[in-house]
Amino acid sequence: MIKIQGLIKEFQVKNKDKKVVTKRAVDNLSLQVKPGEIFGILGPNGAGKTTTIRMLTMETQPTLGEIYYNGESIKKNPREIKKLIGVVPQHINFDNDLTVGENMELHARLHHMSSEKRRQRIQEMLDFVELGDTINRMPRSLSGGMKRRLLIARSLIHEPKILFMDEPTVALDPQVRRRIWELIRALAANGTTVIITTHYIEEAEALCNRVAIVNKGKLIAIDTPEAFCNSLGRITVEWDDQTGHQYQFFESRQEAAVFAGTLEHGAHIRRTNLEDAFIELTGRKEGV
């Protein structure tokens, strides 16, 4: 289990007047991630998602607050905790002077794996992400989706129990995005805890057992996608009037239909989704 308690991250930055001011990127964040779940951190750009991941993976230190893995503070034994985690970064960061296999080999050596284990895991992970025939290719020759899958394979080389994925499908087309989703579901089915950050609302709704909605560095709410939707009402009526686009929530389709019948203009009746909850909680429409 991962426990975050009162996490704060502040940076010193220059404002438009070139004065140094303190910016709080993460503001008193507390939450817990259960073993084996797919946990999503959903928020608009600049909400503090990547900064949170960087603190959880020990790439940067919190200003204040505590992070625990299985009840043990990361301050106590960071080297052992790093063995438990894998990281899929938001940005592609392969060594383009090395082949796919050599990139995997380098990462395995950094984890002090034996030569026999390295050979086994490299081929096993490339096969898992359907890149087994690319081992001798250069990363620059791969498509965007193939590079994303290779990042996943590399992050899994040392068999981590917890996988962090920072915007894992950013800039990918819908077909490739869903292929990545299938890999994430397969990992969770095999017992890996997966923590993803995303600003794609439909991605969080499709994948995550629970979602934390963050905005301006603060935790707004945390629940299952279904519970978020049910808290508003399971059915949504949308319509347009003179003041703009409107919507209202109802518990049943029958209630929604009765209300829609009272409107002068046509209305659309549909199931409530996580985007509706996100907009209600943050007042923003992002990633759709």
How would you characterize the overall build of this protein?
The chain has 288 residues and is an alpha/beta fold. The protein has two domains: 34-61 and 77-224, Rossmann fold; 228-282, no CATH class. 34% of the residues lie in helices and 30% in strands. It has ten helices and 13 strands. The chain has helices at residues 49-56, 78-82, 100-110, 115-128, 144-155, 174-189, 201-207, 225-232, 253-260, 274-282; strands spanning 2-14, 20-33, 38-42, 64-69, 72-73, 85-88, 162-166, 193-198, 210-215, 218-223, 235-241, 244-250, 267-271. Strands 6-7-8-3-9-10 form a six-stranded mixed beta sheet, sandwiched between helices. A four-stranded antiparallel beta sheet has the order 2-1-4-5. Strands 12-11-13 form a three-stranded antiparallel beta sheet, with helices on one face. A hairpin with a 5-residue loop joins strand 1 and strand 2 (20-33). Helix 3 packs across helix 4 (115-128) and helix 3 (100-110) runs parallel beside helix 5 (144-155). The two termini are 31 Å apart. The model has no long low-confidence stretch (mean pLDDT 94).
